[in-house]
Write the structure tokens for this entry.
Amino acid sequence: MTSIRRKGRLAIAGVLIASALAACGDDSKSSNGGGGGGTTSGPAITLAVNPWTGSAVNAYVAKAVIEANLGAPVEIIDIDENASWVGLDDGTIDANLEIWPSGHAADYETYITGKKTVVDLGKLGPQAKIGWYVPKFVIDAHPELATWEGFKDPELAKLFATAESGDLGQFTMGDPSYVTYDEQIIQNLGLPLKYVVAGSEAALLTAIDQSIADQKPLLMQFWKPHWKQAKVDLVEVALPPITPECEASLAAADGKYACDYPVDELYKAANAGLAAKNPAVFKVLSALQLTTDQQSEIGSYIDGDGMTPDAAAKKWVDANPDVWKAWLA
Amino acid sequence: MAVSVETLPTLESDESVRARRQQRTIGLAIFAALSVGALVAAHDVPDWMDSGIQKWAQDRYKWSVVNRQSSKIFTWVFNPIADVLTWAVENTESLLLALRWPGVVALVGVIGWRTGGMRAAIAGAVALFGVGVIADWDLAMRTLAIMIVAVVIALLIGIPLGILTSRSDRVERVVRVLLDTAQVMPIFVYFSPATLFFGIQFPPAVVVTVIYALPPAVRLTNLGLRQVPVVVNEVGESFGATTLQQLFKVQLPMARRTILLGLNQVIMMAFAVVVLASLLGTGDLGREVLAALQKLEVGKAFAAGLGIVLMAVALDRISTGEKSKRHSRLATKLPTVSSRTAAMIAVAVPVLTVVVARLFDASVFPTSLHYDLATVIDDAVQWVQDNLRKGVPVIGGTQAISDFITMHLLDPLRDFLLWLPWLLVIVLAALAGWLSKGWRLSVTIALCLGLIATMGYDNKTLLWDRAMDTLSQVLVAIFISIAIALPLGMWAGRSDRVERALRPFLDGAQVLPQFVYLLPVVFLFSIGRAAGVVACVIYAVPPCIRLTSLGMREVPFAPREAAISFGATGRQEMRNVQLPLARKAILLGINQTMMMVLATVIIAALIGAGGLGLLAYRATAKAQIDFGLGTAGGLSIVLLAIMLDRLTQAWGTRSDNDRGA
């Protein structure tokens, strides 16, 4: 019995070796076939894609342009925002083409101004804006909720009450890693609201669907650009305009912030070694810019038409040579 | 029958009974005094209790960020390890891809055939083929490559460590505490350090997976070796075998079964981590799950998740070995082959398959075989959402249940725990420990809670308060899980038909990545703690049902038959004979339930459960600022877990002593 078992094990070892040999024969051929294709050479350029459509749009447009014109293969890594900073730091990621400044002040300070292992590649183009949002049906029924003052009325705020918030209205925050002043704003404006963390963007998106399905009011932190904005009618609630006091409070981090969110100017960042590794790519990525409209157009190919990011980017690149030719100049 | 068991204690002398009673009185008096003290002391944890652990951890984090290119520990230790791991995963992946899909399926089939017979071969091959049918084959192979590397490393470290722990009780104790801590620590706490130490992509993913997969390898090797009868060792010794000879020729072969069970558990634990590890940039099937969820594509996430499950099943079937061999009807029908023929078949089949596959260039899994599971699932989820949320007769629907859980279970319990002075919570928990087992457990519990009190603040809220919030969620989830699982488990334990009907649900709910059902749970139960509790219950109920049913089934038939022959009705027999005898297994089930709840209550932070889980998540999401806070939150969860684990384990052993079994 045991000897049979041992032979069985030998057989398995044999199988592994044999198949490894069979496989290795033309391994190089197969791994090349799987690659990006085209006539590319030199060390691969690695671009990070963070988990949202805009991020994929920028990276795949850059990939298409670089591979076709500069001959360097481009590799894409789908990765969490925070982990991508570590990759930028040690050079496993060459560039990340969409960073929202509001959420990454500490990273900027650590890696770009501090260690200088990461460099700022300049603005991407689109301006993003975080704010307070409600579904449109809420404003249709209660126009006074279009501005923050409407929420001062406890009766109206109560429309947003849930089991979690009790008698107060619930203010819903999505992913806790995103920047938030909402607790301060609620407190400093004296609004009868309770700040509840949904925990993830996906949970927040589900809450939106649920709110619309039930016609149950929802007040939340949300932002533009976001693919969901094209699918559901959301209205931004006007918060008090930004004052010098608010700017000072933000700088001092004294917890007295009581204004609207500042505009986010999205920017690009690269590993400091990229300029030496491939100057041409460094130049193109520095020059690369997309407008909000261009980004949403390509994004709609992906989210609306179900194209792969690769195909969507190529389609746009083929149709708009004048835009990206300027980056090469 | 119950009488005979209960009369046993009276065999003790009157004196010892009196001594025990006296001890009990003294103990109660001490606890009464402590309670008064607790009432007099401050209601909240005082400031001076803050140990500064948050700042300590944050400083270590900062140091690593700044020095990861220059420090020797990185250039000499971490970087080479990372390089080796990357090399291993990349090569395993390209080998799997080079084998082509028919080759991989054939290989799995052959390995299954040699380890577990025809049935294992077919099950393994079919499961792996199924991966290609419902999910993306290339992404799946990347996941498989990461899993293979992680499992091999877990075994390379785990088995020697298990041998070591089997030889020394002291080593065992130390290792056990370390492994328990490592395993209960929320995965979010590991991500930032793992990326700082090992970079991004495969290396940190493998390291994190190994951390979770290691404990069963150590535990079951240790258990297997300790179960080898002393006589066997002595025989070996008397024949003059050296220690090493003993180990390799006698003990390890005899412990083989248990160690194989360990391998099986290692694989399961490893697969449980896949989805989250993809946050580190592995770009595999796990990432497919997360990416789909990000866009609320539940069906797509489910299909990818099921792909992961099927891969786990395939590896499970071919690694469990001979379990089903003897009972296989198929095996007896097939002609037995000589070992040499078997070896030849085992080599020839995969090699031929690979060659043929490469000739026909079957590099991509054929799209014609692809089954669009996503749409089916989406429709089902849609139906559930449309029909169960509201307007269900009597119970009103999931939304009503959610509100009930929040307002009538979670809120009162949390408010009560926060209303109690913190020291009184410790005294009462310690009292429970003392009543369950004695002073030692009582001190352990007090120590765990006491340490939570030293964890400091989250902004202006004490971590203690966050811990009480989480504790209330854990207790409610355990309560609901048991209320559901015990009756179902008992029923399944007495009826084969029920057992069979439940099995697919049990397997599915347990192995499916938790993320896949988080979103439907949110949609049904809304964001918040109630949704978190429901997620915990979904994950915790299966093991509890399974262990209860198993316990009922393992009760020997003789006492049950005796009871029936004495005229007991089925119900009487169950209550008075089968249940008491199955008690130990059921209590083990409750212990498992609790561990599952604690594992899920952290993930539940992603759907609004808050508490310690949210803090732990911030260790990943805002490491630059909150790593220290997240670590403190993670440690608090570990402490809660140790406390609850020891307490529920004590119930299991106590029932032993009481019953004299």
Q: What stands out?
A: The first helix of chain A runs from residue 2 to 24. Chain A touches chain B through 70 residues (CB under 8 Å). Chain A has 16 helices and nine strands. Residues 102 and 179 of chain A are 6 Å apart (CA to CA).
